[in-house]
TrEMBL record:
The keyword Zinc does not apply. One of its GO terms (cellular component) is endomembrane system. The lineage of its organism: Bacteria, Pseudomonadati, Pseudomonadota, Gammaproteobacteria, Thiotrichales. Its main location: membrane. The keyword Transport applies. InterPro entries: NrtA/CpmA_ABC-bd_dom. It is found in: Endomembrane system. Keywords: Cell inner membrane, Cell membrane, Membrane, Transport. Transmembrane segments: none annotated. This is ABC transporter substrate-binding protein. Pfam families: NMT1_2 (PF13379).
Length: 418
């Protein structure tokens, strides 16, 4: 069994060979051709593509998630019985190892409640006309860029000529990383790992989060940017160094968002409200009980995540500037944020900032849909603010989560400082 991700493979059996064709398909649903007919359906007009993908008639909550702390609000809501307390039936959450199969499961209505990297529903809704709706944020902060001890890297500027893994092209991680690289005078590229790089180029590749720590330990990559607990796992198990926490670059940034189907949001308002009530309660409990939640999520607890409790606890709580001086991974201690935090309100300013930056971010495949995307329209069309607002009001959450201006709780200013 692998010590890094607790999968059935031994460490030596992980495949880290970068296949550029496969990597470049990863971000788009047609990469799923090997697992079913969804890819073919996606190439059809949307009315045909989803004609046979009808949801179950029952109202059971079916959660799909990746084994990252981004899913904490959903998992805590399940583990603490919050869904049942709202009068809902809920299945045991299903762990998925990669973003593409999670998207596939959601598109096929296997799941009706998921967390997605925030750019994913943007791409799904406006590139593929898939009826997905953001109903809240799953968390804030909770990611970082770690470098291998073999690199000696202590700044973004020193990443030139290196191989860096990201979890998905359409991710906050890819956006923030590329902004930081460009700021340091480097050029992000996407090419075969065996092709030579110029000194000012950084090659990016897609890698599932559980594969990142062992790949770094094996020196197959030089760095990776990802959600917790895989940064903590890299530090504890692979000798990695935290170069910079993303929450120290973009204050209280969103990463994963809570997503539901349009049909549920529009046609099942009572059900949707109860779902979001439970999720908001889960996020608040996680914010106020990080050590307890880390143990609950871990391998020694309810086994939602494959990591040991010490790794998950580090991922949830270890954010001391004194411990991250070499290199200096925390440059804004005055921001008073945590390594991961939980504010479920989906601030429009953050969505707008992310959409604007996504247009400037290198990905593979066709992203021309962004050229004509009306961002102001998308802010209203993509996100449902009602259920999360009602839940935050009901459970008096506003003054208990970070990043809220009491005088204007549903608006904020985005702070991004490299």
């Amino acid at each position: 069994m692998c010590q890094y991700c607790n999968c059935d493979n031994e460490l030596s059996k992980h495949d880290y060979t970068f296949n550029p064709t496969k990597g470049r398909r990863e971000f788009i649903l047609d990469s799923m051709a090997a697992t079913g007919g969804l890819a073919a359906a996606m190439s059809l007009p949307s009315t045909q593509a989803f004609a046979n993908m009808t949801p179950p008639e029952d109202e059971v909550v079916r959660i799909g998630y990746l084994p990252i702390t981004d899913a904490s609000a959903l998992l805590v809501a399940h583990g603490m019985g919050f869904f049942e307390e709202e009068g809902l039936k809920v299945e045991k959450p299903t762990l998925i190892r990669g973003w593409s199969p999670l998207i596939e499961g959601f598109a096929a209505h296997k799941f009706n409640l998921v967390h997605f990297l925030k750019p994913i529903p943007i791409w799904m809704r406006y590139n593929n006309n898939f009826p997905v709706k953001i109903t809240g944020w799953a968390h804030t902060n909770g990611s970082g860029l770690v470098v291998g001890k073999h690199t000696g890297v202590e700044s973004f500027a020193e990443l030139g000529g290196m191989q860096v893994a990201v979890p998905y092209w359409y991710s906050m991680h890819n956006i923030v990383l590329q902004m930081a690289l460009k700021n340091a005078g480097l050029e992000p590229v996407i090419q075969d790992q065996t092709d030579p790089l110029k000194p000012n180029q950084v090659n990016l590749q897609i890698m599932p989060p559980p594969d990142m720590p062992p790949a770094l330990a094996a020196k197959k990559i030089d760095a990776y940017i990802v959600a917790e607990p895989f940064n903590a796992a890299g530090e504890v198990l692979a000798g990695a160094k935290m170069l910079r926490f993303t929450g120290d670059i973009w204050e209280n940034h969103p990463c994963c968002v809570v997503c539901m189907h349009d049909d549920d949001v529009n046609k099942r308002p009572e059900w949707s409200q109860k779902v979001m009530n439970a999720v908001v309660r889960g996020g608040l409990y996680a914010q106020e009980n990080k050590e307890e939640v880390a143990k609950m999520l871990s391998r020694e607890g309810k086994r939602y995540l494959p990591m040991k409790a010490k790794v998950v606890e580090k991922a949830m709580t270890d954010y001391s500037p004194a411990d991250y001086q070499d290199p200096k991974a925390i440059k804004h201690p005055d921001w008073d944020i945590g390594r991961i935090d939980f504010n479920p309100y989906p601030y429009p300013s953050a969505t707008k900032f992310l959409m604007e930056q996504l247009k400037e971010t290198l990905v593979t495949g066709d992203k021309t849909f962004l050229d004509n995307l009306d961002i102001d329209y998308a802010l209203k069309d993509l996100v449902n603010y009602d259920y999360v607002t009602n839940a935050m009001n009901k459970y008096d959450v506003w003054d208990k989560v970070p990043g809220v201006n009491p005088a204007d709780p549903t608006n904020r200013k985005e702070v991004f400082e490299l």
